[in-house]
Amino acid sequence: MAKRETPGNDHKIRNSGSERSYSTTQQASRIVLVVTAMLLGVGLVAGQLIRLAVQGQDRPRIAAAAPVTDVISRPPIVDRDGRVLALDIRMPSLIADPSQIIDLEHTIDTLLAMLPNADRAGLRRKLSNADSRFAWIARKVSTARAEAVFHLGLPGINYRWETKRTYPAGQVAGHVLGAVNISNRGVAGLEAFLDRARGLTDRDGAKDGAFETGPVRTTIRLGVQHALEEELADAVATFQAAGASGIILDARSGEVAAIASVPEVDPAFPQDWVTNGPISLATAGTLELGSVFKLMTIAMGFDLGLVEPETLIATHKPIEIGKARISDGRARRKPLSVRDVFLKSSNVGAGRIALAAGAERQQAFLARLGLLGPIETEVGPLARPVAPKNWGELETVTISYGHGIALSPLQFAAAAATLVNGGYRVRPRFTIAHGLPDVVRTRVVRPETSAMVRRMMRSNVMDPSGSGAAADVPGYRVGGKTGTADVVGETGRYDGRDVNTSFVAAFPIDQPRYVVLVTLIHPKASKKTGGGRLAGDNAAPATARIIGRTAPLLGILPEQISPVAE
Amino acid sequence: MLRFLTLGMVCLTIASAAALYASTFRTRAIAHDLAKAERHLATLQRDVETLRAERAYLSRPERIAPLARDLGLRPADGTQFREIKRAEPETTANNRRGDLAWRP
After folding, report:
1. Which residues of chain B make contact with A548, given a CB cutoff of 8 A?
2. How confident is the model over A327-362, as pLDDT tens digits?
3. B48: nearest CA in chain A?
4. Cβ contact, residue pair A38, B13, below 8 Å
């Protein structure tokens, strides 16, 4: 029997018939160890209790399969008045775990009965791979259909919620809104801008970037946009045009109240148009706009102090530069005043003013108005202006009446707004308080110039000899300028077969609130237009209809009405 | 003394374990209720989103415009605006100041 003795200590413990002796020091240290361990245990339990009482439990997490695709949530897009233009809704998608399917044929037959659009071969291919644990059966179906399939109790068949972008207003403002792909990421228009500028949230609400949530408010007004689209479609039908674009722009802030392009696109079906569909004629394409450009030329003449409205210009003699000879359509016997150059849309008159300014000053003036550089907007960059590399005398003359320079209608509309609003530079905007810096009022044109241009625009509509008489809308004091541009034909020359016509208008002209630019692509002459196909025959009356219909929606009171005093 | 201490500690541990178990049980019940409420909330949010989309769809101008035309309505134009003070109520034989006049 083992016996251990510690010198100087004879205390012994008898245990189960066997005798062991421990020293008091050892015994005490073991007791301390046991007590410490027990205290530690109790302490841990107590600590956990206190933590639970004070902090509560972590937020419980519901176990769920990780998303197969990285689908993100997008903020709603609303119009200026808060009406919904785009919205995420959750829709079920039918999924399968092929490894759990017991009776493949029965499953396929049952699914085909419930999903008439599914094809048997496709379903068989997806479901017959027993090694696979996941397959899509049908994505983004109705809730009723998903639940009906789920309640059949087919082994391995289930559904999961996915986010679907919807555009409840239909095709309205399709080009502005853009589109998203199957993973709900923006691929065009405002949707793509949101991805770049605001950041997005994933399924669990975790943010991609540090941006606030909440709806994105656009400058578009749904009612105005619809009216513009309807009137443009009417104009295309009436004047047998190949296409059209229309813009209603706030002349002071640059907010785009409505912008449309025919043919239209449907944001809900991006596969039909994003890569190869009709582009927005208002923003993504460039056009030679023709005589509406004389607005710029004559404004330049005023701003540089070269001419005044009654200055006479030698329009009765053609301009000859090298072999080129530029004359007006009809022979003139005497000079025209600048006012008449504008009203009668004389190419020679505009050309002579531009020659007096010279190429350098012309370029500088157009650049000040923002007509030569790129413009970035929330719906993407505007099509870059196409200007001649060698800007000589001939180019100076042709550009004075809108040939030889091509740009997007929106870029031109913004420059026109700059001219009529007192001379403050306007940049087009599509959203409110997001993305772009606030409007900085930079004056680029003298206010006297702006006033003279406004008077001319009004004369052009009011004067019987003006080209824009058809654009008059009683009560709204419209002013404007026509433009009919020859189109380069298949031969690469201006063959006179087709034209593009434009009308740029501002109203109420004394203190313009809105600028409207309507462009018709290849309109045809008809009995309705009296056999003409000039802008005064088609674009001007179309603009009048648009203004007459949208001005009340924009809150512009007609002339005879003053704001209600009481 | 030591035995009492040990016994006390064991009792305390058992009591703590019981309390912890009860607490965990309650916490799980609450977590379950919370998860249920969150699922319900998600369903309601989904419904709200769907209803908002449906409302916007039903009130889209493309649908309302033809309905309004069928009712004989047309877009407003500039001639339809009048100042309120000029808008005299029409007088009729029975009501000389018109129906707009308030009578106690």
Report:
1. 77-78
2. 887 767 789 999 999 999 999 999 999 999 999 999
3. A89
4. yes
Closest CA to A173 of A250, A131, A230: A230
Catalytic residue among A93, A291, A467, A502: A291
Chain A residues with CB under 8 Å of B6 CB are 34-35, 38
Task: For residues A67-74, give the mean pLDDT.
Answer: 60
- The model's pLDDT over B24-74, given as tens digits with 9 standing for 90+, comes to 999 999 999 999 999 999 889 888 888 999 999 999 999 999 999 999 998
Q: Would the CB atoms of B75 and A166 count as touching at under 8 Å?
A: no
Helix axes A409-420, A294-303, angle to 10 degrees: 30
Residue A357 to residue A360: CA distance in whole angstroms: 8
Instruction: State which amino acid sits at residue B19.
Output: A
Instruction: Give the three-state DSSP class for A255.
Output: strand
| Catalytic site includes residue A291 | yes
* 3-state secondary structure labels for all residues of A453-487: HHHHHHHHHHCCCCCCHHHCCCCCCCEEEEEEEEE
Which chain B residue shows the shortest CA-CA distance from A87? B53
* Helix intervals (H) in A239-331: 294-303
A159-206 tens-digit pLDDT: 988 888 999 998 899 999 999 987 788 888 999 888 877 655 444 444
Per-residue pLDDT tens over the stretch A319-333? 999 888 888 877 677
Q: Which of B75, B50, B42, B52 is nearest to A82 (CA)?
A: B52
For residue A385, CA distances in Å to A45, A279, A283, A297, A424 come to: 74, 16, 11, 17, 21
Q: Which residues of B touch A31 (CB under 8 A)?
A: 2
> Is the pLDDT reported for residue A95 higher than 50?
yes
- Number of Cβ within 10 Å of residue A115's Cβ equals 16
CA distances from B82 to A207, A511, B99 (A): 51, 21, 19
Listed in sequence order, the DSSP H helices in B1-104 are 2-58, 61-70
Cα–Cα nearest to A380, from A436, A438, A433: A436
Residue of A nearest to B5 (CA): A35
Provide the CB-side half-sphere exposure for A307 (13 A, CA).
28
Read off the pLDDT of residues A269-285 as tens digits, 9 standing for 90 and up.
888 887 777 888 888 88
Question: What is the arithmetic mean of pLDDT over A435-463?
Answer: 85
Do the beta carbons of residue A465 and residue A337 sit within 8 Å? no
Tell the residue number behind the tokens 């692509």, with chain if given: A521
**CB of A311 closer than 8 Å to CB of A372:** no
CA atoms within 13 A on the CB side of A60: 16
Residues in contact with A370: Cβ distance below 8 Å, sequence separation at least 6, in sequence order: A411, A414, A415, A418, A425, A426, A427
At how many degrees (to 10) do helices A222-238 and B61-70 cross?
70
The nearest CA of chain A is from the CA of B37 a distance in Å of: 12
Q: If you average pLDDT over every residue of chain A, what do you get?
A: 85
**Percentage above 70 pLDDT, chain A:** 87
Dihedral (CA of A492, A493, A496, A499) sign = positive
Q: Hey, are the CB atoms on B54 and A168 less than 8 Å from each other?
A: yes
CB neighbour list of residue A565: distance below 8 Å, 6 or more residues apart: B83, B85
Give helix A347-357 / helix A393-400 axis angle, nearest 10°: 130
Higher local confidence (pLDDT), A438 or A411:
A411
Predicted TM-score (pTM) of this structure: 0.78
Beta bridge partners of A520: A244, A501
